[in-house]
Amino acid sequence: MERSLEEAKVALVKSKEDMAHYYNQQRILALEYHVGDKVFLDASDIKTPHPPPKLAHQYRGPYPIQRRVGRNTYQL
Q1: How far is CA 1 from CA 6, 7, 10, 11, 15, in A?
Q2: Model-level pTM?
Q3: Between the CA of residue 63 and those of 6, 15, 25, 35, what are the distances in Å?
Q4: Rounded mean pLDDT of 48-76?
Q5: With 0-12 CB in 10 A as exposed, 13-18 as middle and 19+ as buried, what is 65?
Q6: 3-state secondary structure string, 24-67?
Q7: What is the mean pLDDT of residues 53-68?
Q8: Residue 23's domain spans which residues?
Q9: What total of structural domains would you count in the chain?
Q10: Which residues on neighbouring strands pair with residue 67, listed in sequence order?
Q11: How do strand 74-75 and strand 59-64 relate by DSSP bridges?
């Protein structure tokens, strides 16, 4: 019974490593911006009284980055 338990633990560890390997193959690292860089904002969630979303601009900007707030967040 102990041998079966050990085999199951080894199989779970291998499965976890395999899943992490295949997930990381598809992953794209986020871009890193610096203070002063100019970026465009996705305007799909911004509601305005302007034309319908189909005719509105897809992006707003460019806005300069003022400071880095978190690992992947910036203040404009």
Answers
A1: 9, 10, 14, 15, 21
A2: 0.54
A3: 56, 44, 32, 11
A4: 84
A5: middle
A6: HHHCCCCCCCCCCCEEEEECCCCCCCCCCCCCCCCEEEEEECCE
A7: 85
A8: 2-75
A9: 1
A10: 75
A11: unpaired
